[in-house]
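Standup notes
- HV: blocked on the assembly model, inputs below
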Amino acid sequence: MKRLACAMMLLAGIALAHAAPQSASRTADMRDAVDRITIAAENSDYHLVKVQAIDTALVKRGYEDPGVRILFFGKATAVEQAEKEYPPLLSMLPIKLVLVVRGTEIVVISDDLDAWKAMFPEPAAHRLIELWRQDIEQMLKDFAVP
Amino acid sequence: MNKTKPHLLWAICLWIGLSISLPVQAQEPEQVEPPMLNALLKGGTIEQATEAVIRSINSHNYSFVRQQSIDSRLVPQAWEAKSVRIVYFCNFDTMSKALALDTRASEFLPCRITLIETRDGVELMAVNPAWVSLRMGNYRLHEYCLKLKVDYQAIMDEATL
């Protein structure tokens, strides 16, 4: 019994420690990275709905370049599913991916979907979030392919 | 020796478990933040609510960025959902400072409020940035997010007055 408790505690600890946003990187400039993640998203039936060019917007206003650009991706069926099965999740759509410059690489980072699960603990929400998590995983895999 | 062994094993497991999970647990101080911020405009339409939110954004020293339907650019414009809209806004100065502190600030940037028309009126929803920053464990970013949360609440409250 004690061994079981120990094992469960270890697993819980490891699960918590691993809760983090999904990410992928590749050597590219920002423009190339935007193109590649857009194609990767299209492969998973997601469409680029908005580019929030925070980097250029800030530089234009005299601020330092943060090397960050935000892209929003949507899928009509994802909206329909959220509307039908768990409307509060609409507040998390469209899905956001952040592109960050790290030297010669661009890192694409998703929102922390484990945090979303904590935010919306209901099973219906978890089911949808898990679907989206898998979609994002596929997009990031496609993005990172050399 | 046989009696102490299970205790020793238990202590080792406890230590390993805590050492793995502590960095994450340490990110959650005693403060409790609700994950979502909500407000309700009773009896109003989504157009009225959107206008009120934009007015409120401007009066709180933020810049209105854009508003769009939840399925904008996913379906033909004529088919876009009328009952769910998103309003984006930001303050360039604070956005620059937050990103300089921690690029993970992009998780709650740009600011956005989702408006959903219901039978009772229009519900305004936003992710609480302070709830997000608590999980990140960056104290200085959290301070910024507490201020941002207050601004969100003020904007939503004024819009639903």
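- HV (later): unblocked. The longest helix of chain A spans residues 123-144. The domain at 20-144 of chain A is CATH 3.30.310.70 (TATA-Binding Protein).
- Next: hand off to the docking folks.
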